[in-house]
Q: What sequence folds into this?
C-alpha cells in the first residue's frame, strides 16, 4: 500500500489501515471570519468523497495526531493536495479536509493514535491550475522605501508558469527574475509589476503546474518548538509540531519559517532570534538578535494573525521602556527578509531601540504582494 501525503503531513504505509471511496451528501463549507472553523451546509448531489483511516504508532504519534486534528479544523486550507508518495494513485488530487477525528487508543500511552479523515475532492490537475493571487498593500515602516520589485515566490519545481488576467482571460508566459535556494527546495521569484505589464491588469494571478507532493516544500510553515531547541532529534526525526491554526495554544517558542529565514519568537523569555539558510553548508546561521537585544526592549506578546501556506503573519507587541508597541511581522514564500509594518491602530514611529534591533532582518520594501495560494479552474483560463 502506497504512502499518502496530505499537504505537509504523511500517512505512512505501515499505519494506513484503509482508504475507501464512498458516496456522501455534497457539503459546502463557509469559513468563519477571524476563526478556524466552518459552517457545514447540506446541498443536493452525491459526489465521491474519501475516507482515510489509520493508526499512528511512533514516538511522536501524539504530536502527529495533533497536527492532523488541527489541520482539520483550521481555516485557509480548503484546497490541499493528496497524493501517493513516490508513485501515482487513483486518489491523487485536490481536497478539502472536512474533519479529522483523532483518538488515543490506549489511555496510558500517546504512542498509538487512531485517526479518521473525511476529505471532499475538488478535482485534479486536469481540472485546475495551481495559482498564487496577489492583492498588494502598502507597508508602514522606517527600514527603507523600495517599491520594486514586488516579489512573488513560486516553487522552482513548477512548470508552465503564466501571468493570467481573469478579467479578459489573457495570459502570457512568466519569467523568473531570480532563483533562490531554500532548505527543502528552490524558489523562483517573479516581479508582480512585470506581470502587470504583460497582461495589462493590476495584481495578475500566477498560474502553474506543480507535482502534488512538491508544492509544500517551499511553503511557509509555523512550528511550535515544544521546548526543543532543534527541529530534528538525534535520529533526524521532526520533534517540532507543525502549526496550522491561529488558535493554536502554545507555551514555548514558536518559529515562522519560509526555508530561507526563520523568525524564532520566544514569548516566555521575552526575546526573539532569526536564522538564515546557508545553501553552501546546508545549515542555518544565527543572525544574533538575541545577543544584541537592547535592555530597554522585551517581546511582550505574540498574536498569530495568518497561517496561510505562502504568507504567515503575526502581531508582535514589545515592551519598550515600560510602554507597549505593536508591530506586524510578515514572512512570505521565497523572501530573504521579514516584512514589518506598523498596524493601523498603532501610533508610529517605531521606537529607536526596537527599530535598530530589528533592522538586520527587516525588508526595505514598502510593498507587500499579499499573495494567497489558490486554484484556478482550467475552464476559466480556456479560450
A:
Amino acid at each position: 500500500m502506497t504512502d499518502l501525503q496530505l499537504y505537509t503531513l504523511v500517512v505512512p504505509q505501515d499505519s494506513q489501515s484503509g482508504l475507501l471511496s464512498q458516496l456522501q451528501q455534497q457539503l459546502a463549507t463557509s469559513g468563519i471570519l477571524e476563526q478556524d472553523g466552518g459552517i457545514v451546509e447540506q446541498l443536493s448531489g452525491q459526489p465521491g468523497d474519501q475516507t482515510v483511516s489509520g493508526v499512528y504508532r511512533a514516538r511522536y504519534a501524539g504530536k502527529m495526531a495533533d497536527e492532523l486534528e488541527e489541520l482539520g479544523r483550521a481555516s485557509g486550507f480548503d484546497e490541499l493536495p493528496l497524493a501517493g508518495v513516490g508513485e501515482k494513485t487513483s486518489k491523487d488530487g485536490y481536497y478539502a479536509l472536512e474533519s479529522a477525528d483523532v483518538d488515543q487508543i490506549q489511555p496510558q500511552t500517546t504512542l498509538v493514535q487512531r485517526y479518521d479523515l473525511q476529505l471532499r475532492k475538488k478535482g485534479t490537475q486536469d481540472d485546475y491550475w495551481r495559482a498564487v493571487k496577489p492583492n498588494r498593500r502598502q507597508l508602514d515602516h522606517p527600514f527603507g522605501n523600495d517599491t520594486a520589485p514586488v516579489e512573488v515566490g513560486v516553487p522552482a519545481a513548477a512548470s508552465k508558469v503564466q501571468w493570467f488576467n481573469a478579467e479578459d482571460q489573457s495570459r502570457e508566459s512568466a519569467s523568473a527574475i531570480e532563483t533562490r535556494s531554500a532548505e527543502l527546495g528552490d524558489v523562483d521569484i517573479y516581479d508582480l509589476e512585470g506581470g502587470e505589464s504583460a497582461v495589462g491588469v493590476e495584481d495578475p494571478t500566477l498560474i502553474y503546474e506543480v507535482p502534488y507532493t512538491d508544492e509544500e516544500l517551499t511553503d511557509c510553515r509555523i512550528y511550535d518548538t515544544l521546548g526543543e531547541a532543534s527541529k530534528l532529534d538525534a535520529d533526524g526525526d521532526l520533534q517540532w509540531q507543525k502549526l496550522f491554526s491561529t488558535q493554536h495554544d502554545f507555551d514555548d517558542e514558536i518559529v515562522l519559517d519560509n526555508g530561507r529565514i526563520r523568525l524564532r519568537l520566544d514569548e516566555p523569555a521575552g526575546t526573539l532570534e532569526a536564522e538564515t539558510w546557508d545553501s553552501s553548508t546546508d545549515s542555518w546561521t544565527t543572525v544574533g538578535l538575541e545577543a544584541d537585544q537592547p535592555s530597554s526592549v522585551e517581546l511582550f506578546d505574540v498574536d498569530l494573525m495568518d497561517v496561510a501556506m505562502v504568507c504567515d503573519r503575526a502581531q508582535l507587541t514589545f515592551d519598550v521602556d515600560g510602554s507597549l508597541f505593536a508591530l506586524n511581522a510578515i514572512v512570505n514564500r521565497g523572501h530573504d527578509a521579514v516584512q514589518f509594518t506598523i498596524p493601523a491602530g498603532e501610533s508610529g514611529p517605531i521606537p529607536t531601540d526596537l527599530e535598530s534591533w530589528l533592522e538586520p532582518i527587516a525588508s526595505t520594501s514598502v510593498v507587500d504582494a499579499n499573495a494567497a495560494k489558490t486554484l484556478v479552474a482550467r475552464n476559466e483560463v480556456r479560450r
Notes: The chain has a mean pLDDT of 90. Residues 129-137+146-213+369-381 form one domain.
